[in-house]
Amino acid sequence: MQEKNRLEQSITLCNEVDQELSDNIELIEMGEMEGDEEIIAEAESAIESLTGKAGEMELQTLLSGEADANNAYLEIHSGAGGTESQDWASMLLRMYMRWANAHGCKVDLIEQHSGDEAGIKSATIQIKGENAYGWLKTESGVHRLVRISPYDSNARRHTSFASVWVYPVIDDNFEVEVEEKDLRIDTYRASGAGGQHVNTTDSAVRITHIPSNIVVQCQNDRSQHKNRATAMNMLKARLYEAELQRREEEANATHSSKSEIGWGHQIRSYVLQPYQMVKDLRTGVESGQPDKVLDGDIDAFLNAALAARVHGETAEVEDIE
After folding, report:
1. Residue range 236-240: average pLDDT?
2. In this model, does residue 293 exceed pLDDT 50?
3. In what order do the strands lie in the sheet with 106-114?
4. Nearest-CA neighbor of 92 among 267, 321, 311, 252?
5. What CATH number belongs to 72-171+254-311?
6. Contacts of 284 (CB under 8 A, 6+ apart)
7. Of 159, 163, 150, nearest in space to 121 by CA
8. What is the pTM of this model?
9. Residue 260 pLDDT greater than 50, yes or no
């Protein structure tokens, strides 16, 4: 029923745009016949406004992947550099949580390992909302920050790295076979806030899938059983996402270099000093307002990266003022 309603809404919107375009073309023809410049100008203005609506509809058609409609897991890991990179990882976590909240999505914290002095070493969140995975799937990769370090008494400029990995939440409709012999399951005491309930038992769970070397972990529940179930769902989702990547690369070998995800694959730079700019290295989209971007205003980057991924070429998107 959800799929049916979504398709009906899309068809209705397309029909409305088509009808409005036809009506205004007729008005222009009538205005030309009668020599009425005012009617012509109004109709042209109405058609111009349809361009923006059509662009939004085109972006929606890009979200046609097998799992694009699903919720998403988003993992963040700090790079080398200690406190500086851990602080950068926490800034990215805040950015994505702000983006999710602005789009009416719900965010659940799955696990978080705090940094030694500040920030986080790693964190995993689940973002629940319409097309969450479809919008965020192009965010996987390495994000680079350049700034004057607040942790450096000499006020020197530092470069920090953090990696982001996005993969879809899957349900019972997706069959992913995982054999017990391929798993190594470790339990440990959870870290972070929670007082006596968190740190007194080995409730946190880490699962390693030996053939693929994929590691997932969960510590958000007091129950080891529930954490294990959540970690297994995350593992299946990671394996499913890896299969989606494999299919995409096989279908379009020339695009495989863009789709490759790894620690060495830098996708975006955020520069706070000596000048201010955020630049996506895949699409060329830039913003001169990094504060807004770090506050969750990343739609222009998502739109361009999604269009480039679907069309296999750099999208023509204007720089953000």
Report:
1. 85
2. yes
3. 106-114, 120-128, 72-78, 157-168, 141-148, 266-271, 277-280, 286-287
4. 267
5. 3.30.70.1660
6. 314
7. 163
8. 0.67
9. no
pLDDT above 70 for 320: no
Q: Which two tokens stand for residue 110?
A: 């799955």
- CA gap 144, 167 in Å, rounded: 21
Distances (CA, A) of 221 to 90, 110, 182, 300: 21, 8, 25, 36
Domain 72-171+254-311 identical in fold to domain 180-250 = no
Condensed to tens digits (0 to 9), the pLDDT of residues 124-162 reads 999 999 889 999 999 999 999 999 888 877 878 889 999
Q: In 3D, which of 313, 300, 267 has the Cα closest to residue 145? A: 267
Q: Measured between alpha carbons, how far apart are the two ends of the chain, in Å?
A: 41
Nearest-5° Cα angle at 264, 145 to 137: 80
Does residue 67 or residue 261 have the better pLDDT? 67
Which numeric CATH code is attached to 180-250? 3.30.160.20
DSSP state of 318: P
Q: Name residue, tokens 């602005």.
A: 102
Where do the structural domains in the chain lie, given as residue ranges?
2-62, 72-171+254-311, 180-250
pLDDT at residue 86 is higher than 90: yes
* 208-222 b/e (C-beta count within 10 Å ≥ 16 → b): bbeeeebebbbbbbe
pLDDT at 192: 57
Residue 26: is its pLDDT beyond 60? yes
Kindly indicate the confidence band of residue 254, based on its pLDDT and cuts at 50, 70 and 90.
very low
Contact in structure between 187 and 196 (CB atoms under 8 Å): no
Q: Is the pLDDT of residue 259 over 60?
A: no
Q: Return all residues near 126 (Cβ < 8 A) that are at least 6 apart.
A: 71, 72, 73, 74, 107, 108, 110, 169
Q: For residues 27, 33, 38 and 44, what is the CA-based torsion angle, rounded to 10 degrees?
A: 40
CB atoms inside a 10 Å sphere around CB 51: 8
Buried b / exposed e over 111-135, threshold 16 CB at 10 Å, is: bbbbbeeebbbbbbbbbbbbbbbbb
